[in-house]
Specification:
By secondary structure, the chain is an alpha/beta fold. The protein has six helices and 14 strands. The chain has a single domain (about 1-200), classed as Ribonuclease Z/Hydroxyacylglutathione hydrolase-like (Metallo-beta-lactamase, Chain A, 4-Layer Sandwich), CATH 3.60.15. A hairpin with a 5-residue loop joins strand 13 and strand 14 (about 195).
Length: about 210
């Protein structure tokens, strides 16, 4: 597996290409504002996008969906609990002084426990609400793509519509802190981290689970 991190847009959002080089395929995780940059990176990697995985429906993670979907034909997958956010992206953008066109309807829905595949790679879908009602984390191959659930030294904000602090903490404890310490966390903003580092040092999580 090869992971290409693409920091982009006014929010410095991390889009990721999840690449199975043997298969020549990739999944595009959270195509944000700079769709042209993302498509350029896909072309550089010389792989075929087979899916667009949306971790949650906030504007900074989906602004590139229309162009990327049109250019690649890859199906868009969103959790149904975030469909209201996804459908209101123009209104979300206006709140930040931006403009956005309506997004194409999702092609598929995420379901907790389902398996997302790209080539020979497999990731289990874990519903991790709290930052948004339909946030999901994709866990597999020793990594997690968690959107804005967990960051290096921090957690997702919970003051946006549909956010809830205790729900987010519960999600992290239930779905992420149970993973091996070596699990790499690819977050929606900022640098990568590991579950072990966050278990030991994240001020929001310290003491959430015993350190073995």
């Amino acid at each position: 597996m090869r992971v290409v991190q693409i920091a982009n847009g006014a929010f410095v959002e991390n889009c990721y290409l999840v690449i199975d080089e043997a298969a020549g395929e990739c999944a595009i995780v959270d195509p944000g504002e700079e769709a042209g940059l993302i498509l350029h990176k896909v072309a550089q990697a010389a792989v075929r996008p087979v899916a667009i995985w949306i971790t949650h429906g906030h504007v900074d993670h989906v602004l590139g969906v229309p162009r990327v979907r049109a250019a690649t034909g890859a199906p868009v997958i969103v959790h149904p609990a975030d469909r209201p956010l996804y459908d209101r992206v123009p209104q979300q953008a206006a709140a930040f002084g931006l403009q956005a066109e309506p997004l194409p309807p999702p092609d598929q829905d995420w379901a907790h426990g389902a398996v997302a595949r790209v080539g020979g790679l497999a990731f289990t879908v874990r519903h991790t609400p709290g930052h948004s009602p339909g946030s999901v984390s994709l866990v597999g191959e020793g990594v997690v793509f968690g959107g804005d659930v967990l960051f290096q030294g921090s957690i997702g904000r919970t003051d946006l519509p549909g956010g809830d602090y205790q729900t987010l903490i519960d999600s992290i404890e239930r779905e992420l802190l149970v993973l091996p310490d070596s699990t790499i966390v690819y977050s929606g903003h900022g640098p990568q981290t590991t579950i072990g580092a966050e278990r030991r040092t994240n001020p929001f999580l310290t003491g959430a689970l015993p350190i073995s």
